[in-house]
Amino acid sequence: MTKADLIDSVASKAELPKQRAEEIVNSVFDDIIAALKNGDKVNISGFGSFSVSNRKARTGRNPKTGETIQIASSRAAKFKAGKTLKESLS
User: How far apart (Å, rounded) are the C-alpha atoms in residues 68 and 80?
Assistant: First the structure.
């Protein structure tokens, strides 16, 4: 499912124009991103939770040349599926 498919689904289920459904979907995504940027955890009951993981700086290797390189520390989004979602996939 793509973002466009999600927008179409929201529009048809809520009987909204596609433009309004797109605004709603984008708003939800923007709120999740803003919360993660602030370091907050986003918990959607029954679906799952989003959090930010801090990755330490480490030494890596360029696969093309074999040269050792330094990989900077970074932050990444993590998703953990909730119980209801896990059970529905079984």
Answer: 33
Whole-angstrom distance, CA of residue 6 vs CA of residue 14: 12
Predicted confidence (pLDDT) per residue in 16-71, tens digit = 999 999 999 999 999 999 999 999 999 999 999 999 999 999 999 999 999 999 99
Query: Domain spans of the chain?
Result: 3-89
For helices 18-37 and 3-13, the axis angle rounded to 10 degrees is 120
Phi, psi of 74, deg, nearest 5: -155, 170
| Measured distance CA(13)–CA(47) in Å, rounded | 19
- pTM, 2 dp: 0.78
CA–CA separation, 50 vs 35, rounded Å?
A: 10
Domain at 3-89: CATH code: 4.10.520.10
> In the numeric block, which tokens belong to residue 7?
């927008």
